[in-house]
Amino acid sequence: MSEVGSIVGELAEIVGAANALNGTDATEDYGHDEALATAPVQPAYVVRPANAAEVAGVVKLALAHGLPVTARGSGSGLCGACRPSANGIVVSFERMNAVLEIDVDNQVAVVQPGVTLSELDTAAGAAGLTYPVSPGELSASLGGTIATNAGGMRAVRYGVTRNHVIGLQAVLGTGETISSGGRIAKISSGYDLTQLIIGSEGTLALVTEAIVKLQPKPAASQTVLAPFADLDAVIGAIPKIIASGVAPSILEYIDALTMAAITYLTKLSLGIPDSVRDSAQAYLVVQLENREQSRAEEDTERVGELLGELGAIDVYVLDGNPAHKLIEAREHAFWTAKTAGAHEIVDIVVPRQAMPEFFRSVRGLVERTGSGSGVAGCGHAGDGNVHLGVFQADPAIRERLVHGMCQLGVSLGGAISGEHGIGREKKPHFLALEDPVKLDLMRRIKTAFDPAGILNPGVLFDPLD
Ligand SMILES: Cc1cc2nc3c(=O)[nH]c(=O)nc-3n(C[C@H](O)[C@H](O)[C@H](O)COP(=O)(O)OP(=O)(O)OC[C@H]3O[C@@H](n4cnc5c(N)ncnc54)[C@H](O)[C@@H]3O)c2cc1C
Question: Given this structure, which CATH class describes domain 220-331?
Fold first, then answer.
C-alpha cells in the first residue's frame, strides 16, 4: 500500500508494482548482511530491477529525491556493506540472475550481477570450465563479490576477484551507464575503471553486468592435513611450501580450538589419533590440483615430505569424502564462530612472513585487554589473511581490541581487510589508520562517480555533509 510522501508509485513505474516495495512491506532480510556487529536497519524502499535501464531509472529517481541507494546481492557480506540507510532504497539484484553466455573460445562468462557463485560454477562446469574465485559462501552473488573484491581459499593459487573481472557495465551515481574493459586479455587505454569499481562496496557504481575469466577445471586433486605442535611452526612452514613450486590451490591454517569446533559441529571424523590431536595447536590444510592424477600425487608426496621436515607431528592424505567435508567445514567456519558466540570477525592481512609476529602480538594484546577477551580462528595462510573470531561482549572493550589488531596489521605492512571489505563495521578503524592523503583522494574519486553522494553513504566514508 502506498503511503503519503512515499515514492513507491514512482519506483513502480520503473520496475513494476510487484518489484517496488515500501520497506515496511519487505522482509527484514533487506536490512542486514551477516556482519556480527552491525545492527540491522530496515530501508524505506526495496526495488528489484530486471535490467540495467531499470537500475539507471531508479538511480535517477533517487537523485531527484536525494535518497540513498544501497546495492544488495545475496547479503552474505561480513562487514555491514549492504546495510542500507533508513531513508534509502535497496536495489536488490535478485532478478538480474542470468548467466548470459559461457564463451568457451575466449574462456569468459558474461553474467548479470545477481548470479551466484554456485550458479556460475555449474554453468561453467558444463563446458569443462570453472570460475575459481571461491569465498566460503557460494550463495554470494557476482555483483557482491565484485563490490567486495572477494577472495577465499583458492586465492593463493588463482587470485582474487580483481584478477578475474575483465569487463563491467555499471550505473554511476549520476544515473549514467558505462561499459569498461571487455572480452580482451589486456588493455592500456586510459584509467582502468573496471579495477576502480571492483572493491568499491557499492559506493561508486552499481554493477549491472560483468565479464569474468574462466579456467579449465582441474581433473585431479589431493588434500593433505598436517597437525603441528605450535602455531608459529605452521606459519613458518607456509613460505617454504610456496617456495617449493607445487602451487597449492588451498593453503589454510586452522587453530586447534577452531578445528575442534568445526569437526564437532559437522560430525567430521578425520581419523587423527587422540594423542596427536591433544598435542596439536594448529593444523595446515594443503590442497593440490592438477589436470593429471599422477602429478597431483607427485606434488602430494613432495608436500608430505616437506611438512615432515618442517615439524608436522604427522601428515594425513585425506580421501575424497573427508577431504571435501573438511574443506566445506572450513568454508563454514564463520557459522561455527557465530554459534560459539563470537562478537565480531576480523580479516586482517599481513605479509606472509609477518604472520608469526602478528599472532604473538595479538596474544599480547588479548592478555593486556583482559576482561574475558578471546580470539580464535583460521585463515588463508598462503595469503597472510587472518580470520579471527573476537569474543568480547563489551562493545567499547572490543572496539579497543579490534582497533589494536588493525593497528598492528597496518604497522606490519598489512591492511585492515584482505577480502571482506570495510563496510560500516571496520570504517572507524579504516578512517583512523589510513593515510589521510589517500582518504582525501578516495573521497575525490567518489565525488567524480557519485557527485551527490547517494551511493551507499555511510559505507567506507561517513555520509557527505
Ligand atoms: C560463511 C561465510 C564465509 C565467507 N567466506 C568468505 C571468504 O572466504 N572470502 C571472502 O572474500 N568473503 C567471504 N565471505 C563474505 C561474503 O561472502 C563476500 O563478502 C561476498 O562477496 C558478498 O557477496 P553478496 O552477494 O552476499 O554481497 P552483499 O553482502 O549483498 O553486498 C556486499 C557489498 O556489495 C555491494 N553490491 C552488491 N551487489 C552489487 C552490485 N551489483 N553493484 C555494486 N555493488 C554491489 C553491496 O552494496 C555491498 O557493499 C563469507 C561469508 C560467509 C557468510
Answer: alpha beta
Question: CB of 456 closer than 6 A to ligand 1?
Answer: yes
Tell me what pLDDT residue 231 has. Answer: 84
Least Cα distance to 58 among 450, 97, 178, 49 occurs for 49
Residue 460 CB less than 6 A away from ligand 1: no
pLDDT of residue 370: 81
CATH architecture group of domain 99-216: 2-Layer Sandwich (3.30)
* Cα 68 to the center of its chain, rounded Å: 24
- pLDDT for 3 equals 56
Phi, psi of 359 (to 5 degrees): -65, -45
Q: What distance in angstroms lies between residue 229's CA and the mean position of ligand 1's atoms?
A: 35
Ligand 1 atom index nearest CA of 207 = 42
CA distance 39 to 86: 12
d(CA 133, CA 165): 10
pLDDT in tens, 208-236: 999 999 999 999 999 999 999 988 899 88
Check: CB of residue 85 under 8 Å from CB of residue 457: yes
**CATH class of the domain whose range is 335-437:** alpha beta
| Longest distance between any two alpha carbons in the chain, whole Å | 73
Expressed in angstroms and rounded, the spacing between residue 125 Cα and the centre of ligand 1 is 22
CATH topology for 3-94?
3.30.43
- The ligand 1 atom at the shortest distance from the C-alpha of residue 145 is 21
CA of 22 to the centre of ligand 1 (A): 24
Cell (9 digits) for 99 = 548467466
Ligand 1 midpoint to CA 147 (Å): 7
| Ligand 1 neighbourhood includes 379 CB (under 6 angstroms) | no
Low-confidence stretches of the chain (pLDDT < 50) are: 1-2, 465
CB 184 within 8 Å of CB 279: no
pLDDT at 371: 83
Compute the distance from residue 34 Cα to the ligand 1 centre, in Å.
9
Domains 220-331 and 335-437 share a fold: yes
pLDDT on residue 270:
87
Distance 35 CA to ligand 1 centre (A): 10
Is the CB of 141 inside a 6 Å radius of any atom of ligand 1?
yes
Angle at 374 between CA 369 and CA 378, to 5 degrees: 130
Domain spans, the chain: 3-94, 99-216, 220-331, 335-437
| Closest ligand 1 atom number to CA of residue 332 | 1
Going from the Cα of 230 to the center of ligand 1, the distance in angstroms, rounded, reads: 33
pLDDT attached to residue 464:
61
Any atom of ligand 1 within 6 Å of the Cβ of 143: yes
